[in-house]
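Hello forum,

I keep getting stuck at the same step: I have a sequence, I want structure tokens, and every attempt I make locally crashes halfway through. Rather than fight my setup again tonight, could one of you with a working pipeline run this one for me? It's a single chain of 454 residues.
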Amino acid sequence: MAGPSLTFRAGGARFAVPAASVREVARVPRLTRVPHAPPSLIGLGNFRGTVLPVLSLAALLARPRGDEAHVLLVEDGERVGIAVDVVEGIARAADAAEPVALASLIAAGFARVERRAGRAIVAGARTAGRRDEIPLLVFAVGAQDFALPVGAVEAVLRLPRDVTVLPQADAAVVGSMSVRNRLLPLLSLAALLGLGATAAGARTPVIVVRIGAHRFGLVVDAMRAIERVPESDLDAVPAVFNRGGAEARIQAIGRLDGGRRLVSVLAVEHLLSDTLTARLLRSSGEMPDAAPATDAPAERFLAFRVGDGAFGLPVAAIDEVAPVPDRLTRLPNAPAFVQGVMNLRGAVVPVVDQVRRFDGVAARGAKRRIIVVRAGATRIGFIVDAAPEVLRVPASALCEAPELGGAETRVFERVAALGDDARIVLILSPRELLDGAERDMLAALRPEGAVAQS
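Reply #2:
Ran it on my machine without issues. Output:
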């Protein structure tokens, strides 16, 4: 091995590679596991804003894995991280270290997956038949349900344990929290609506909205669902309701479930008075943004969990998010992973168990939800653990998922690197998700011995 070598230990042995082939040595970051990835791919890591696949050298060499504490960042057409136990240093001679050809190891262990054309589904999810539907984020304040248009919501976060209290604050002010190194003023929506402030807990939802050039967090009691409501089911507010101090805060009344439920749709721009806005900005020290964040390229995703994994779907591809009903109607002779069907405003929607998609992990949380996903005319419900959390992700924080693994990993088309806490969210392709569920159903219904047509 000509030139200086970098020596290190992995899998109980000592190895060496040309020092020039290693761009950087880093500590193992927080890793995000990719379901159905090859055993050697131990996860995705965020390296100063760049998401890279991290491979275990011991697993590539079929050795027992040790305490992998360091990552060698190498270039093999694309950058990857190689996890090793201990990095010893640079040596002119490799001594007793065994030389290892990382490029050939990676090539032998991973076949590149050919990407399916037409990966973008967000725009295609807006079909002509849905132009008169308004997506609403429904939540509870006190004993009432309210809603905001999804387009007016920048994110849905959780109230942190420690909130900074603002001095001489208005009764509606909860305090402030730090979001991406900026102070976010927090307001009790119950107090703003004159319903009386409610006690906030550790998991209380915070809806981030923009009023003018400023962001505010609205503290609510609980998230309900994302629902698409036809414009014909949104009624103007009677004039008598628009008198007094709360005028124009409610812009419409939505009729859900065939009129059995009513929800008040709020007008974000009328929630705060000019006086309260000015006082909040002085107290928090926030200055107007140089340009509204909505001008920067960004996408909105619904984040959810299945087991320990964090995943996301484009909001535009989601029809609804609803609680799991007490009972789903079972279909005779249906495949085992079809858990049943649900009635969604007169339409029958199959509900699919996503164990196969997420490496054998099923949703079991007490706050499970059904996410109804649409691509074209196809609608299928998927049971997940906790939802919804709406994330507004800048385009700069999105990148293509690494092209490593088998066909099952095609469902993960992108990754979002959230710089505030080094979190990585795997973004699913709605089309691949639905295609996979349909393929599973067709395969299960195919007579035994039948051969699939290509």
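The chain is about 10% helix and 45% strand. If your local run keeps crashing, start a new thread with the error log.
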